[in-house]
Amino acid sequence: MTEARGSAGQSGTTHARHTPGTPSWVSLMVHGLAATQEFYGALFGWEFRPGPQQLGPYVRALLDDRDVAGIGRLPPDRHLPIAWTPYLASDDVDLTAETVRLCGGTVGVGPLDAAEAGRLAICSDPSGAVFGLWQAAAHLGTDITGVPGTPAWNELLTFESVNVAKFYETVFGYEEAAQVSTDVDHVTLNIDGRPVAGIQGVGNSLPRDRGPHWMTYFEVADTDETLAQVVQLGGHVLRAAHDSAHGRVATVADPEGARFSLIQDPR
């Protein structure tokens, strides 16, 4: 977990248009859409409504009628890693996607319109970690943070932070705050002095079946109770609950293997 979890909103914060470069949405593509809705609905109290038809079978997850995240269904013949993907805000997805290419990343999907909701692209950085771009129109993105069941933080887990941090700084204009020590390789990405995401270099500790990837942290009221729920609902505990400077944290996987972390705010 980052050493600068300052970007999490205050309780029940509602968002206007997201500043370019900030994580504005998280989305998950799975094979069993109905079963996945049941899992996250029971775990986080999410309700679901249909999303843009251009995205195929896709639903928006809501808390108190406010958008939190999206879940879509993969085509049966697509055998991609099941993973939560953060979308970074952009005022011009086409220009940002071209910058991604020029800086050594790749654009795998789009840019394309999602009806009146906005415009998107799915990219990967030079290390292979997948992330999205979102240019908001009618749909601004995640509309509430700071309460249980909402995204609290996004962190890139990669081999080492230096080179990939330069990529994100060049594409999005982040300010870098590096934590330099013999045993910690961590960079916090800031916009206007505010931490919005992190990059953690973990060397050979990366899962062999995943490689570099983004990790989304969801806020929970009680990490230990939520861990028990994850197991009861068919998920798995990957890293047991432990205390950090920013709250009690654990890492889990849903029944299809999508990894995410839980964090209990210490306040």
UniProtKB/TrEMBL annotation:
The residue ranges crossing the membrane are none
State the superkingdom: Bacteria
Q: Where is the signal peptide?
A: none
The record's CDD domains line, in alphabetical order, gives:
SgaA_N_like (cd07247)
All copies of domain VOC, residue ranges: 22-136, 150-265
Q: Where is this region: Disordered?
A: 1-21
The family database entries (InterPro entries) matched by this protein are listed as:
Anthracycline_SecMetBiosynth, Glyas_Bleomycin-R_OHBP_Dase, Glyoxalase_6, VOC_core
What protein name is recorded for this chain? VOC family protein
Q: What organism does the record attribute this protein to?
A: Streptomyces lanatus
